[in-house]
Design brief:
Layout lengths: L4 E3 L8 E5 L1 H13 L3 E5 L2 E5 L2 E2 L4 E5 L3 E5 L7 E2 L4 E7 L2 E7 L2 E3 L2 H13 L8 E2 L4 E2 L6 E6 L2 E6 L2 E3 L6 E4 L2 E6 L2 E4 L8 E4 L2 E6 L2 E4 L4 E5 L6 E13 L4 E7 L2 E24 L4 E23 L10 E14 L24 E4 L6 E13 L39 E18 L8 E17 L7 E4 L2 E5 L5 E3 L1
Parallel strand pairs: 1-3, 2-4, 3-6, 4-7, 5-9, 6-10, 7-11, 9-14, 10-15, 11-16, 14-17, 15-18, 16-19, 17-20, 18-21, 19-22, 20-23, 21-24, 22-24, 23-25, 24-26, 25-26, 26-27, 27-28, 27-29, 28-30, 29-31, 30-31, 31-32, 32-33, 32-34, 32-35
Antiparallel strand pairs: 8-9, 12-13
Length: 482
């Protein structure tokens, strides 16, 4: 039996882009929910609205030429949990957003209107980020926020122009995001997809263009974690990191598979795997990444900014079948909202895998990796000689980012505080010379190398071991410089 349709026109909605349709859309959702579920139909046209609350067994369906247009008046937005959002759901089951229409948050105009509220005294100072000269994320609405919901489907829709994060799923389970387009370079904090402490998530065939992290896994609660996450066949463009774990990482992440990802024009890392808040990150597979014009290929970081318990763990991570072209200039120069400039001079950053003293990253496999660097690293711009490896700061409690240590002593890979690392079929190349060696290993145990090829750099010391033990070289050509 087909679910009943509830056309918002029948509830008084008008497709003129000017009439406020919040109550009409909400009435259709409420009617569908009351009658054991159904499909709320957004037909062709532009429908202006404030916050709507999606309820159990209701599918919000946008026809191909339908536009759900977010209000630019902050007073038209609600919050059920953490933040304001255009579409909200709290503790609901079997909810969907489908169709080939668009959800447009008008984020920049909304954010600037909120900014003006502060200057006329309608928002207090807590609501304003003085350092960055913009309204806090606490007062800028998202497009979607679902919390503690089960059986969620978001499919085919286009989500665009958010004033803050585009979509957040928090402590939810059984989520399918399929063929979703995110196009949000409207304002700051425009993460494309945020998955926070969720279980059984599939993100497939999505196309994400975002002014902040593209697809981001977070763990806000020490009592919860992200578990059983599958991300595949997606394309990501990001003015931060394309795929990222661990902006917050209190509980952690486990059993995550990422495969067949295309990345381009990304300012920070193609893959960033971070755990810095005491959580456990384990059993991660990244298989098949092709990235062009990005600032960094791989960033794995175990830190400890948590003060209430011991440092967490990163273990059992495999990254394979990856090809990356590193940019010399800013990869995000064409974005409206670009990542912040670094406050220091630096050469191109290598990929890095770093733990902290007494807490190494454990059991990592890096296999079939090709990274092409521009080179041009010079000691006049920034200089860190090999005799000063101990000068690389630990920054145990700092925010994790590929540039966090400043100048690093290698141009290809830098590893420190790692226990158990296998590197096989690695090809690193540079277009122009770089004063640094290709690879540096510092405080690394159980290092296994097989078929490492360095192209474009013929230094005698291109491969540096410092305080490193239990090294296995599987064949005479383990390190080939040509």
């Amino acid at each position: 039996m087909l679910a009943q349709d509830y056309n918002i026109i029948a509830y008084g909605a008008k497709a003129d882009g000017k009439t406020m349709n919040t109550s009409a859309i909400q009435s259709a959702i409420d009617a569908a929910n009351k009658n054991s579920g159904g499909r709320v139909l957004i037909p062709e046209g532009i429908f202006l609205t404030g916050s709507i609350i999606l309820k159990s067994n209701v599918e919000l369906h946008l026809e191909e030429k339908a536009v759900l247009l977010g209000s630019t008046n902050r007073d038209h937005y609600l919050k059920l949990n953490r933040w304001l959002s255009l579409i909200l759901a709290d503790n609901q089951n079997n909810i969907s957003i489908t169709g080939k229409g668009k959800i447009d948050g008008q984020g920049r105009r909304l954010a600037l209107n909120i900014d003006s509220l502060f200057y006329i005294g309608h928002l207090d100072s807590v609501s304003y980020n003085f350092a960055d000269k913009r309204p806090s994320h606490l007062v800028r609405p998202q497009l979607i926020e679902f919390v503690e919901c089960k059986n969620i489907t978001v499919k085919n829709v286009t989500l665009m122009n958010a004033a803050c994060w585009v979509q957040t799923y928090d402590q939810c389970s059984n989520i399918l995001l399929d063929s979703v387009t995110v196009n949000s370079d409207a304002y700051w904090n425009n993460d494309g997809i945020d998955i926070q402490d969720c279980h059984n998530v599939r993100i497939t065939k999505c196309n994400v263009n975002s002014a902040d992290d593209g697809i981001c896994l977070k763990s806000q609660s020490a009592e919860h974690n992200c578990d059983s996450i599958y991300i595949a066949n997606c394309t990501v463009r990001s003015s931060a990191s394309a795929i990222k774990f661990g902006t917050v990482s209190h509980g952690g992440f486990k059993n995550v598979t990422i495969e067949n990802i295309k990345i381009f024009d990304t300012f920070r890392s193609a893959i960033a795997i971070e755990c810095v808040d005491g959580g456990t990150l384990e059993n991660i597979l990244v298989d098949g990444v092709n990235a062009v014009n990005t600032g960094n290929a791989i960033f794995i970081r175990l830190g400890d900014r948590n003060k209430s318990k011991d440092a967490g763990l990163i273990k059992n991570v495999t990254i394979k079948n990856m090809k990356v072209d590193i940019a010399f200039n800013r990869p995000d120069s064409e974005y409206e909202i670009r990542g912040p400039e670094l406050p220091f001079f630096h050469n191109t950053f290598p990929s890095s895998i770093t733990g902290i003293p007494g807490h190494p990253v454990e059991n990592v496999t890096i296999e079939n990796i090709e990274i092409n660097y521009p080179g041009r690293g010079n000691d006049g711009l920034a200089y860190l000689p090999l005799s000063r490896l101990d000068f690389v700061p630990e920054k145990i409690a700092d925010y994790p980012e590929f540039s966090m240590f400043g100048e690093l002593p290698a141009w290809g890979f830098y590893l420190r505080h790692v226990d158990g690392i296998k590197m096989k079929n690695i090809k690193l190349s540079i277009v122009a010379s770089d004063y640094r060696p290709a690879m540096v290993f510092d405080d690394v145990k159980k290092l296994n190398l097989n078929s490492i090829i360095i192209i474009g750099d013929n230094k005698q010391k291109n491969f540096v071991l410092h305080n490193t033990e239990n090294v296995e070289i599987d064949n005479e050509q383990a390190v080939l410089i040509k």
